[in-house]
Hints:
By secondary structure, this protein is mainly α. The chain folds into two domains: about 15-50; about 60-304, MetI-like (MetI-like fold, Orthogonal Bundle), CATH 1.10.3720.10. It is about 75% helix and about 0% strand. The protein has a two-stranded antiparallel sheet. Helix 8 (about 155-180) packs antiparallel against helix 11. The longest helix is centred in the last third of the chain and has 36 residues, at about 270-304. It is found in: Cell membrane. Belongs to the binding-protein-dependent transport system permease family. CysTW subfamily.
Amino acid sequence: MKNQELAKKLVSPSKNSRLEKFGKTITLLSLCLIVFIVFMILIFVISKGISTVTVNKVNVFSFLFGQKWNPSAKAYGALPMILGSFIVTILSALIATPFAIGAAVFMTEVSPKGAKILQPAIELLVGIPSVVYGFIGLQVIVPFVRSIFGGTGFGILSGIFVLFVMILPTVTFMTTDALRAVPRHYREASYAMGATRWQTIWRVVLNAAKSGIFTAVVFGMARAFGEALAIQMVVGNSAVLPTSLTTPASTLTSILTMGIGNTVMGTVDNNVLWSLAMVLLLMSLAFNSAIKFITREGKRNYER
């Protein structure tokens, strides 16, 4: 009898194995829930977005490449907003990248002690709400642009300055992580060959971390591309093709936030806004795909 009981205890799952199985089940259910939610969001937005073409019979080429946006006159050209979003996103990323790399190099390579002062200041920028950035842009940046370049002050240039400050912490922190991930023996080998500190940073460290830096820049661009409230307050919200950086313009997010609450669900005016949301979603997916591609290439380079 004792041998049989001992055999049953040995065969039956222990408490730790049951807990491990329970943990795996919870993890799997959580993963399935997340995938399901993401999949349903995609299906919902895409189904609403294509209604413009399938139900309201709006020509897809006239929608994507049309230059006039006037829903009251049945003109649904989204090109001004698409161009506005790309211009603001790309230029803000171009301006933020050198500052982010400089701050990251300073905190990791030049003065790690200085990071105790610089890092909390950058973290503070992360915690500021978007509406506060918008108010600052409205009260400071717009008058500054108006005094320097003339006009109303509202436009792409004001939006670039606002987004530059908003994406700077994201790009800086991700660049800092990429620099810290570079193995220490890379630096030691460079110094052993007689390279100076700047040569080591420029030729070795930044070169080894370039995939992580590119990922940080693309991530910052994705953040800028999807920003709505702050950019809406300073860009001018004029749905026309941007002719200069200082004239009022619009982005996909600014038109969406202004118009979605003033339309009736199921109407063509509402459906075209969902089409703009679908374009925004597809671009966000493109940014995420670019991040994954750059990350995969970076891992391959490390392996080599």
